[in-house]
Amino acid sequence: MDTRHTVIESGLGPLTVVARGQALTGLYFADHVRRPAEETLGPRVPAEDDPLFAEAAEQLHDYLAGRRDAFALPLAPEGDAFQHAVWDLVRAIPHGGTTTYGTIAERLGAPGLAQRVGQAVGANPLCVLVPCHRVVGADNSLTGYAGGLSRKRALLTLEEPAEVTASRLF
Question: How much is the pTM?
Fold first, then answer.
């Protein structure tokens, strides 16, 4: 297959975007917890030379600048059936919203599988695009994020509804 990657500079640091054919298969931070080995990413190509990467870069920049709240990109993450079921529910979390691992487990009909849901969320190969930063702990605490909790906080702050921001005391 035509696996390749590019690196897009962002306010969150460099983002490595991976594609196979005409779909994105990965988006990773430089210090991503589950970042694949460099040799599996295919050749590095300039984003502007690849229409899919150019569109991804534009949409990511717009999102991080607050001008976009959803992505319209072809995605093809690799994972098992359970992971895909979790990722589909994560993709359905609205911009500015959050949910918990337990709520996702309940929606899957398996309330006792919150920990397995957490593992699937942690294995999400398309961070930001599949917004796993919107999944929080049962007490609404910020829990693990493959890109680090400071990035998770930054993404949630970026998406925070205006009325919530306005009501803050700090």
Answer: 0.91
Task: Name residue 86's amino acid.
Answer: V
Q: If you compute the radius of gyration of the chain from its CA atoms, what whole number of angstroms results?
A: 16
What Å distances lie between residue 9 and 17, 28, 46, CA to CA? 11, 12, 12
- In sequence order, what are the beta bridge partners of 20? 3, 23
| 8 A C-beta contact, residue 24 and residue 8 | no
| Residue 126 contacts residue 27 (beta carbons within 8 Å) | yes
Decide if 127 is catalytic.
Answer: no
Give residue 156's identity as a one-letter amino acid code.
L
CA distances from 165 to 101, 125, 159, 160, 161 (A): 25, 30, 10, 7, 6
Catalytic residue among 17, 19, 47, 132: 132
DSSP result, 53-108: HHHHHHHHHHHHTTS-SS----B-----HHHHHHHHHHHTSPTT--EEHHHHHHHT
Taking only the tens place, the pLDDT of each residue in 90-126 is: 999 999 999 999 999 999 998 889 999 999 999 999 9
Specify the 3-state DSSP secondary structure of 150: helix
Which residues on neighbouring strands pair with residue 126, listed in sequence order? 27
